[in-house]
């Protein structure tokens, strides 16, 4: 146990040397500030490291992770992250990244009392309820599990779009754009779900609009 703990600091020393060998000013530049183009909202799962799978370095992604990459409407944590990333860091892209084999999604498909986790998982059960017809029609359990992972990403993208900062940023600047991805643990590949961001914006605008804007298409009647 102590060995694995000590190894972290040895790893860190090696990493510092490695980064300096490619760019002597790497940490000097890092200390000067951040201008990441991406906000990444992903799962806490240890097998899904944001920077590694995107091939990006420190300073290039603003990251928020929780169980099953959820964007709950009253979660101050994720909502503060979104607000800061959009209003202050001016990120161009917001990514919600789920992953196949997600333990959080799997837990939400079971009839088990998991104590404190129940309210968190309930939001995933809500996603199942919203897409019950499609999911119930899938007889293969693995396929059903995979599809719920994808639909959960889609619904969390919609929750991101509900944020005032995201709507206002898009109306004023044309960004941030929201993307839904799924990471495949078995192959290491990222799949872009090609979420129709503008379509979602306009679809939910009647109910969730916070901009008092006419947007780029005629607004639906309220
Ligand atoms: Zn997960």
From TrEMBL:
Gene Ontology biological-process entries: carbon utilization; cellular response to carbon dioxide; cellular response to oxidative stress
Keyword vocabulary terms for this entry: Lyase, Metal-binding, Zinc
Alphabetized Gene3D superfamilies for the sequence: Carbonic anhydrase
Residues where Zn(2+) binds: 43, 45, 99, 102
The keyword Lyase appears for this protein: yes
Cofactor note: Binds 1 zinc ion per subunit.
Lineage: superkingdom: Bacteria
Enzyme Commission number, as recorded: 4.2.1.1
PROSITE patterns linked to this entry: PROK_CO2_ANHYDRASE_1, PROK_CO2_ANHYDRASE_2
Protein family according to the UniProt entry: Belongs to the beta-class carbonic anhydrase family.
UniProt name for this protein: Carbonic anhydrase
Record organism: Soonwooa buanensis
């Amino acid at each position: 146990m102590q060995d694995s703990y000590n190894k972290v600091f040895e790893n860190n020393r090696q990493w510092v040397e490695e980064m300096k060998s490619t760019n002597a000013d790497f940490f000097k530049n890092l200390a000067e500030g951040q201008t990441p183009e991406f906000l990444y909202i992903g799962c806490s799962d240890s097998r899904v490291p944001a920077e590694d799978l995107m091939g990006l370095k420190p300073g290039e992604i603003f990251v928020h992770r929780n169980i099953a990459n959820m964007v709950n409407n009253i979660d101050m944590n994720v909502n503060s992250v979104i607000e800061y990333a959009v209003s202050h860091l001016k990120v161009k892209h917001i990514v919600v990244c789920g992953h196949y084999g997600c333990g959080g999604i799997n837990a939400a498909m079971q009839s088990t009392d998991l104590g404190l986790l129940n309210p968190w998982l309930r939001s995933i059960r809500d996603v199942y309820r919203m897409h019950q017809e499609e999911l119930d029609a899938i007889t293969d359990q693995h396929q059903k599990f995979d599809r719920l992972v994808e639909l959960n990403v889609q619904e969390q993208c919609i929750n991101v779009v509900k944020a005032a900062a995201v709507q206002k940023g898009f109306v004023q600047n044309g960004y941030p754009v929201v993307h839904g991805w799924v990471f495949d643990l078995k192959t290491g590949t990222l799949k872009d779900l090609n979420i129709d961001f503008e379509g979602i914006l306009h679809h939910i605008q009647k109910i969730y609009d916070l901009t008092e804007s006419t947007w780029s298409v005629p607004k639906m009647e309220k």
